[in-house]
């Protein structure tokens, strides 16, 4: 490998009094890791005991205590009673408990900082507004096919800290802006920044500058012995290149970048690896220029780890997109239904919409995160036959479209899906392309996508019962 691992400063957890704030998947994993290292741990959550699922049993199994209905600092002991707080990414850094803890000098870190201090292998950190999951998944497979012991973890699924005791050659970590807010020494051997477009402004970061600053914290502890891979086709990402202390490698679909597109060929070239011809762009199993950039970033990181072009090519050929990412979910009377519920911001929705061809009818809208929908309105006007809008943002998206294509403001998802189908011609595509999070109407984007798929299949069953319907396809 061309990357090195330098063990970080240990935390010294034995006998320490630690509170873990937030008991979802990440928080529970942190509690278990801390208890295994001799800390006295209190797991804290604002939810009632009955709403914490298996968290109480898992905390009891490792000897941690539980504080439910946790609202104020005094419930975790108050001043002098706690040495360290480990905060889950869903807890904002300005939470009242954290503000008071800081005023009393209590140290606060996040789960990725805890994991970094416990892991004994290099971390390849991947962030960006969109494409993180795709990039991490294909990169992990590239390294696995190259014979490395590798795990893919972080925001994509399994918490990083869960691999603290697993012998690995490297760990590929999907990391969100929320998680970077509480790093101290976190230092990836390779950092990958895919793109930065406005997201989580009204619900977390406040403004775009703060969001960019959170993403930049990925690089803050890197040195010239580390690598930073930047997609310089994104102007915000490109603007950061001069201030990064790591050795910067670039990705672009044009020009002379380290990872680039030459005609139809994906190429990566470093001093250590020489020129590697990865695959043809036409071999990438998911559409869109954004995915070509994502796969180039993955290939460049894999090359730094010593993977061959063959390992990269095989991983790309075998790649299957995640559920709710332009996922076909049904067909009725020649109309195709695509679930893109994972497109939870305008940039991801625009990129996926631009990858579709033919007659497209979009269903957009959801919870308002303070996004700017002007570019989305332009994209819908340019690429869609009609738009059916739902959720808190339907009026704002309608204003951005400005009547340039037919549209309807719908009371719920079912109305939108049924009216979109009624509008569609045979051969058309009805795509759920929210450009927003789901929390105004659904538990999460997966629940929204599942509901869309259920409706598509119900419409297909109904259409199959009508005269002349032909074969039913689900």
The name of the CATH superfamily of the largest domain reads Mur-like, catalytic domain
So how many helices? 16
- Regarding quaternary structure, what we see is single chain
- What count of domains describes the coordinates? 3
Strand content: 15-25%
What is the CATH-assigned architecture of the largest domain?
3-Layer(aba) Sandwich
What do you see in this structure?
- By secondary structure, this protein is α/β, with parallel strands linked by helices.
- It has three domains: 17-110, NAD(P)-binding Rossmann-like Domain (Rossmann fold); 119-318, UDP-N-acetylmuramoyl-L-alanine:D-glutamate ligase, CATH 3.40.1190.10; 327-464, Mur ligase, C-terminal domain (Protein-Tyrosine Phosphatase, Chain A, Alpha-Beta Complex), CATH 3.90.190.20.
- 33% of the residues lie in helices and 20% in strands.
- The protein contains 16 helices and 20 strands.
- The protein has helices spanning 25-36, 55-61, 96-103, 111-118, 132-145, 177-180, 201-205, 208-216, 235-239, 289-304, 309-318, 346-354, 374-383, 394-401, 413-423, 445-464, and strands spanning 17-21, 40-44, 65-67, 84-87, 107-110, 123-127, 150-154, 170-174, 190-193, 227-231, 247-252, 259-262, 265-270, 274-280, 327-332, 335-339, 360-364, 386-389, 407-409, 429-432.
- The strands form three sheets. Strands 7-8-6-9-10-11-12-13-14 form a nine-stranded mixed sheet. Strands 15-16-20-17-18-19 form a six-stranded mixed sheet, with helices on both faces. A five-stranded parallel sheet has the order 3-2-1-4-5, with helices on both faces.
- A hairpin with a 3-residue loop joins strand 13 and strand 14.
- It is globular and about 70 Å long.
- The relative contact order is 0.09.
- The model is unreliable at 469-474 (pLDDT under 50).
């Amino acid at each position: 490998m061309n990357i090195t691992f330098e063990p970080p400063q240990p935390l010294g957890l034995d006998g320490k009094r630690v509170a873990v704030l937030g008991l979802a998947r990440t928080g529970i994993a942190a509690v278990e890791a801390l208890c295994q290292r001799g800390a006295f741990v209190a797991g804290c959550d604002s939810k009632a005991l009955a709403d914490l699922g298996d968290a109480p049993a898992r905390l009891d199994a490792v000897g941690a205590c539980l504080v439910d209905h946790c609202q104020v600092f005094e419930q975790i002991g108050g001043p002098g009673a706690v040495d360290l707080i480990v905060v889950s990414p869903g807890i904002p850094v300005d939470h009242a408990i954290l503000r008071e803890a800081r005023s009393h000098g209590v140290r606060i870190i996040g789960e990725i900082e805890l994991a970094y201090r416990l892991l004994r292998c290099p971390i390849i950190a991947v962030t960006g507004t969109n494409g993180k999951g795709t990039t991490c998944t294909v990169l992990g497979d590239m390294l696995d096919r190259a014979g490395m012991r590798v795990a893919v973890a972080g925001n994509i699924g399994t918490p990083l800290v869960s691999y603290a005791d697993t012998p690995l050659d490297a760990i590929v970590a999907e990391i969100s802006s929320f998680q970077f807010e509480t790093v101290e020494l976190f230092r990836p051997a390779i950092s990958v920044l895919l793109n930065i477009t406005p997201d989580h402004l009204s619900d977390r970061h406040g403004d775009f500058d703060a969001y960019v600053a959170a993403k930049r914290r990925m690089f803050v502890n890197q040195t010239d012995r580390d690598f930073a891979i930047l997609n310089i086709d994104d102007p915000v990402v490109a603007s950061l290149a001069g201030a990064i202390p790591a050795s910067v490698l670039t990705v672009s679909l044009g020009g002379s970048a380290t990872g680039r597109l030459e005609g139809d060929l994906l190429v990566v070239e470093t001093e250590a690896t020489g020129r590697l011809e990865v695959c043809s762009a036409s071999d990438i199993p998911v559409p869109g220029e954004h995915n070509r950039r994502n796969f180039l970033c993955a290939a460049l990181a894999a090359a730094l780890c010593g993977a061959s072009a063959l390992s990269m090519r095989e991983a790309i050929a075998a790649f299957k997109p995640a559920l709710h990412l332009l996922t076909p979910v049904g067909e009725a009377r020649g109309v195709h239904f695509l679930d893109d519920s994972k497109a939870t911001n305008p940039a991801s929705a625009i990129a996926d919409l631009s990858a579709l061809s033919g007659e497209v009818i979009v269903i957009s809208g959801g919870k308002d995160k303070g996004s700017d929908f002007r570019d989305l309105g332009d994209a819908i006007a340019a690429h869609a036959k009609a738009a059916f809008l739902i959720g808190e943002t339907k009026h704002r998206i309608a204003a951005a479209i400005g009547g340039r294509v037919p549209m309807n403001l719908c009371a719920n998802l079912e109305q939108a899906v049924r009216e979109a189908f009624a509008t569609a011609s045979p051969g058309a595509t009805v795509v759920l392309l929210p450009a927003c999070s789901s929390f105004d109407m659904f538990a999460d984007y997966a629940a929204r996508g599942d509901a869309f798929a259920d409706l598509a299949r119900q419409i297909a069953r109904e259409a199959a019962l009508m005269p002349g319907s032909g074969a039913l396809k689900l």
